[in-house]
Amino acid sequence: MSLIVAKFGGTSLATPERVKDVAARLVEYHNQKHRVVAVVSAMGKSTDDLLKLALSINKRPPSRELDRLLATGEQASMAVLAMAIDALGVCSVSLSGRQAGIVTTSVFSKAQISEIHADRINEELDSGRIVVVAGFQGITPKGDITTLGRGGSDTTAVALAAGLKADICEIYSDVDGIYTADPRQVPRASKLKSITYEDMLELCASGSGVLQMRSVEVARNFNVVLHCRSAFSSDEGTYVREDQKSGEGESVEESIVTGIVADLSKVKVTLRGVPDRIGLAAELFTTIAEGGVMVDMIVQNISEFGTTDISFTVPESELPRLRPILDGAIEQLGAREYIIKEEMVKLSVVGAGMQSSPGIAAQMFRVLAEAGVNIDMIATSSIRISVVVGYDKVERVMQALHTAYGLDSSEDFTDTHLSAEELAAKLSKGR
Ligand code: ASP
Ligand code: MG
Predict the structure, then answer these.
(1) Mean pLDDT over residues 122-128, rounded?
(2) What is the DSSP letter of 316?
(3) Does pLDDT of 423 surpass 70?
(4) pLDDT at 424 over 70
(5) Is the minimum distance from the CB of 47 to ligand 1 under 6 angstroms?
(6) Identity of the highest mean pLDDT range in 17-26, 300-309, 329-338, 345-354
(7) Based on C-alpha coordinates, what's the Rg of the chain?
(8) N or C: which end of the chain has fewer CB within 10 A?
């Protein structure tokens, strides 16, 4: 008998039929004598709908009230799933974040789980029930409802798996695993059997949306094995776990590069003629951070005649908030001007193997050069190389990189023998 935590994404719960399918899967686990805790996201796109509702009433809704509203999405899905399980003749109980003992920090809309009091869940499991927990939410020590940021149900599931010492944390969604690249961009992308926490964290940071990044951090910190798989099939997906090099007969990808990710919605900002003095970067980026804007890939150029240029990228969605901040900063810092370059892409190549393998960056730049692509910015970590390039040729370049690093699968997602429907189904799995 093992303890399974199984998380279901919104698409897997979008219709009554799908809720019933999820219930059937959970009942199967239960009948195999496993202890089962399900963690649910809101049905379909209901979080987006709730968000739109809030914004139609108040353009800047108070964050406490917004969290309260958004948390109801998961509360609806936990109740219907418990009903569906009951309809199959198995006892189930749904628990909100508060009832499940999930205590968080008090930062509304991006709270972090600080403690889990699992007594109630354990009691319910002991009495033979399937426990269904509302993902994405918790409660502050003061008793206010918080949410964990978009995609936060992943983190609820992993944190519960850690707190309950589960044997595995299954992440069910419309994607059947982690791919070497998004199959919609790279038709020869291949599904990984397993990936390490480090590589997965870099993929998340580079813009892969398969898992909430925080959930991977928690998994790594508590050594929780994740299994990302499709809710629509019983096929094995991708395991996220410590390197298994010494594992018996386990085939773990040996390639130097694990995956390629394109973050499509980037804007490059350059401040020109910034006075080169101590404390300037601190002032500039403090102002930007206080405006709540997330900055990525900062590059400062060589200084000449007492001034320098500073470039950085931000998500395109941050631009309306960033412009007034920059207008103020230019004045305050005595910089000459700022230039904004839109429709940029951050293209990242990730893999722990590159630490011990020279020439990976050179190979990347060569592929870009051959494709006639100009590089705007370059940044690296020990297991990632990222470049910022223009939007237009990105898919061609990704495919060329995928081939160059030997990642191509023999299966092609644009195989002509697939019907349009099969192809659509296959591609939708790739996200
Ligand atoms: N329902 C929330 C969202 O859409 C949380 C989640 O799905 O994990 O972001
Ligand atoms: Mg998600």
Answers:
(1) 98
(2) G
(3) no
(4) no
(5) yes
(6) 17-26
(7) 23
(8) N
Q: What is the mean pLDDT of residues 268-272?
A: 95
Ligand nearest to the CA of 75: 1
Distance CA(321)–CA(37), nearest Å, equals 41
Q: What is the position in ligand 1's atom list of the atom closest to the CA of 151?
A: 8
Is the Cβ atom of 152 under 6 angstroms away from ligand 1? yes
Work out the average pLDDT over 249-265.
76
CA distances 92 to 38, 129, 278, Å, are 10, 5, 61
Q: How far is the CA of 210 from the centre of ligand 2 (A)?
A: 6
Q: Are β-strands 307-315 and 296-300 bridged in parallel, bridged antiparallel, or unpaired?
A: antiparallel
Measured in Å, how far apart are the chain's first and last C-alpha atoms?
Answer: 32
Other C-beta atoms lying within 10 Å of the C-beta of residue 382: 9
Tell me the two tokens of residue 90.
Answer: 């198995």
Report the SS3 class of residue 420.
Answer: helix
CA-CA distance, 367 to 281, in Å (whole number)? 34
Do residues 47 and 70 make contact, with C-beta atoms less than 8 angstroms apart?
Answer: yes
Residue 302 banded pLDDT, cuts 50, 70, 90: confident
> Residue 247: its pLDDT value, please?
47
Please determine, for residue 417, whether its predicted confidence score (pLDDT) is greater than 80: no
**Pocket mutation for ligand 1, best pick of 150, 160, 431 (most atoms within 8 Å of C-beta):** 150
Query: Nearest Cα to 199, choosing from 155, 125, 256, 142?
Result: 256
Closest residue by CA, ligand 1 atom 6: 151
Domains and CATH numbers, the chain: 3-253 (3.40.1160.10), 256-406 (3.30.2130.10)
Assess whether pLDDT exceeds 60 at residue 241.
yes
Q: Ligand 2 centroid vs 191 CA: distance in angstroms?
A: 18
Cα–Cα distance measured from residue 169 to residue 225, given in angstroms and rounded to the nearest whole number: 6
Rounded distance from Cα 431 to ligand 2 centre (Å): 10
Q: Coil, strand, or helix at residue 341?
A: strand
H or E stretch at 348: strand 337-350
What pLDDT does 354 receive? Answer: 87
The model's pTM: 0.86
**Nearest ligand to residue 13 Cα:** 1
